[in-house]
Amino acid sequence: MKTYELKELKGVDGIVLNPGRPTPTPAPGEVLIKVRATSLNYRDLVVASGHYPSSIKPAVIPLSDGAGEVAAAGAGVSEFKVGDRVAGTFFQGWLSGAICAETTGQALGGAVDGMLAEYVVLPQNGAIGVPSHLSFEEAATLPCAGLTAWNAVVETGRVKAGETVLLLGTGGVSLFALQFAKMHGARTILTSSNNEKIARAKALGAEMLINYREKPDWDQEVLRLTSGRGADLVVEVGGAGTLERSIRSVRVGGTIALVGLVAGLGQIDPLPIIGRAIRLQGIYVGSREMFAAMNRAITQAQLRPVVDRVFDFDAAKSAYAYLASGAHFGKIVIRV
Ligand SMILES: NC(=O)c1ccc[n+]([C@@H]2O[C@H](COP(=O)([O-])OP(=O)(O)OC[C@H]3O[C@@H](n4cnc5c(N)ncnc54)[C@H](OP(=O)(O)O)[C@@H]3O)[C@@H](O)[C@H]2O)c1
Q1: Which of 115, 276, 316, 328 is the most exposed place for a label (fewest CB within 10 A)?
Q2: In terms of domains, do 241 and 160 share one?
Q3: Which residue from 42, 54, 309 has its CB within 8 A of the most atoms of ligand 1, so it is best to mutate?
Q4: Is the per-residue pLDDT at 14 higher than 90?
Q5: pLDDT for position 284
Q6: Is 267 in the same domain as 188?
Q7: Residue 111 and residue 201 in one domain
Q8: Atom number in ligand 1 closest to CA 259
Q9: What's the per-residue H, E or C state across 174-216?
């Protein structure tokens, strides 16, 4: 089978196509998945660059996210049969309950082989069925960006109808978070660097939009739009570069779901976090149990992930370059 392997941690140049890796055979309790689509996350750029904080398996097959069909099932597999449509779960060991050190060790496309291959073998509880109305390209976007946004908005954010959710940028996590916030009846404020993307986010249902390049003090704008109160929940994908303004944008007693670090470095003063009793909660994707809850909600709402561009398998490196360019709106997919 064809697969990509991360031979050297030196960016996209370290990713090499292996045209002749043997197709794996499922052991008892495992399923063989014919991968039909994979999707990229910002994390995959960080992994390829060698800057990911966890250890990376030598010559790892990249990408945490992918969906396909069960092609064979090992002995004792009870949850799936040949032909079932499934995705891999980001953390192979976080099935349910609270996150702990033991559950986050086995992440696809990092510590263990990921999805950028024609076939993968996973333990049956490392896979999960996907909503039937989604294409494989759409389903491939769920395991990391989708589940992280679900965790931030619903599981951790516990958003309620009528509350205000602040979303930063128009990447994969933020647009899923927009869709989940809307699903739960929240008002949404979204920032972006680009007016064309702002128009697209508005068409997706974002009510209040701020161009953070034109208005670098976007926190003041958030306060103006919320009559001085601030947002109930911020889905923070910028990290240190945006966190100070997010702290100023959230209401007293509100929540910041700390997800990412696309906005570079900065210094944080902890005093307003204490003085305004802000709940600052780190988010690390989510469990298989949360994935199942997200799937039920996506099915009920017939929600469709925002797929920006689909690349062919042979053009996988161009997909990485497109992600790195920042031109995307939502998710980038590689068809296998
Ligand atoms: N903790 C977790 O479990 C977890 C899971 C998934 C992702 N993440 C992290 O979350 C972050 C977002 O991931 P993603 O996959 O959604 O990334 P992405 O698709 O690449 O989106 C990034 C977006 O962030 C916006 N952005 C860039 N610089 C910004 C700035 N200075 N201020 C505000 N927005 C800015 C841009 O939107 P515009 O072009 O509209 O300006 C860009 O499209 C990454 O750091 C990623 O590593 C963490």
Answers
A1: 276
A2: yes
A3: 42
A4: yes
A5: 97
A6: yes
A7: no
A8: 1
A9: HHHHHHHHHHCCCEEEEEECCHHHHHHHHHCCCCEEEECCCCC
Residues 6 or more apart whose Cβ sits within 8 Å of residue 87: 65, 66, 67, 127, 128, 130, 139, 140, 142, 143, 291
Residue 270 belongs to domain spanning: 147-282
- The closest residue, in CA terms, to atom 26 on ligand 1 is 169
Task: Write out residues with Cβ below 6 Å of ligand 1.
Answer: 41-43, 144-145, 148, 168-174, 191-194, 197, 212, 237-238, 241-242, 259-263, 283-285, 323, 326
Does residue 328 belong to any structural domain of this protein? yes
Q: Do 152 and 182 have their domain in common?
A: yes
Q: How many CB atoms lie within 10 A of CB 74?
A: 16
Output the domain CATH number for residue 62.
3.90.180.10
**Could you tell me if residue 290 is inside a domain?**
no
Whether 288 is covered by a domain: the verdict is: no
As a whole number of angstroms, the distance between CA 188 and CA 177 comes to 10
pTM for the complete prediction? Answer: 0.98
pLDDT for res 7? 96
Number of domains in the chain: 2
Distance (angstroms) between ligand 1 centre and the Cα of 169 equals: 7
Are 44 and 101 members of one domain? Answer: yes
Choice from 54, 168, 262 to test ligand 1 binding pocket (greatest atom count within 8 A of CB): 262
Calculate Rg over the CA atoms of the chain.
20
What's the CA-to-centroid distance between 163 and ligand 1, angstroms? 23
- Taking only the tens place, the pLDDT of each residue in 143-189 is 999 999 999 999 999 999 999 999 999 999 999 999 999 999 999 99
**pLDDT digits 0-9 by tens, 291-311:** 999 999 999 999 999 999 999
Based on the domain organization, do 35 and 59 belong to the same domain? yes
